[in-house]
Amino acid sequence: MIEYQELYASIWKQAVQDDIDRAIKHLTDKGRWAAFDAYCLKVDEEDISIEDKRFKKIFADIKAYSKFKARKLGPRIKQLVYEEAQEWPNNKQLNVIDPEYKDLMAELEQEVKEFSETRMLGLWRRLK
């Protein structure tokens, strides 16, 4: 019985971490695109890719900021994963339909976008 509880605890912990990692990636992607769009508005270059090496440093900053901001989602993600576990196997990623999670994610997306645009607008001349 103890082994089952340990297994359940480690599965729960991994599910929480997976959801947090997914949120970080989502926020980072939103920030990367916001920064890239801000750069494209300032620079008249035809063939530029979001994967350009010039953006490596600023994208690392955006990822770090996204990780920092995603911590606000931690408690809600834990609660949703717990609720999903109670409904297993009929659970369907409650964070997708949870209004509190959606509102918090929208707020964080906006904060990350603003950070990314501000950061890019402060550095775009050095990236040319």
Topology (elements, then pairings):
Elements lengths: L1 H41 L13 H15 L3 H13 L12 H29 L1
User: What is the averaged pLDDT score?
Assistant: 86
Radius of gyration: 18 Å
- Terminal CA distance reads 62 Å
Sequence of secondary-structure elements:
HHHH
- Per DSSP, the total helix count is 4
How many extended strands?
Answer: 0
Hey, roughly how much beta strand do the residues contain? under 5%
What does the main sheet amount to?
Answer: none
Helix fraction by DSSP (H/I, runs of at least 4): over 70%
Q: What is the 3D form?
A: elongated
What structural category characterises the helix and strand content? mainly alpha
Low-confidence stretches: none
Give a structural overview.
The chain is an all-alpha fold and 128 residues long. It is 77% helix and 0% strand. It contains four helices and no strands. The N and C termini lie far apart (62 Å). The mean pLDDT is 86.
Keywords:
0% strand; 128 residues; elongated
Quick overview:
By secondary structure, the protein is an all-alpha fold. The chain has helices at residues 2-42, 56-70, 74-86, 99-127.
